[in-house]
Amino acid sequence: MRALGEPLNSLSRKRVVCVGAGSAGLGVVRALRAGMAAEGVDLRKAQSQFWIVDHEGLITHSRNKLFQGQHSFARHERDDEGMSLIDVVKKVKPHILLGLSGKGGVFTEEVVKEMATHHERPVIFPLSNPTDAAECTAEQAYRWTDGRVIFASGSPFNHVTLGDRIFHPTQGNNMFIFPAIGLASVACQAQRVAPSLFITAAKELSRCVSHAELSEGKVYPDIGNIRDVTLRVAVAVAKEIFNLRLNTIPEPRTEKLLRQYLVRSMYEPSYQPVIYDPHHAHPLY
Question: What average pLDDT does the segment 174-183 reach?
Answer without folding.
Answer: 94
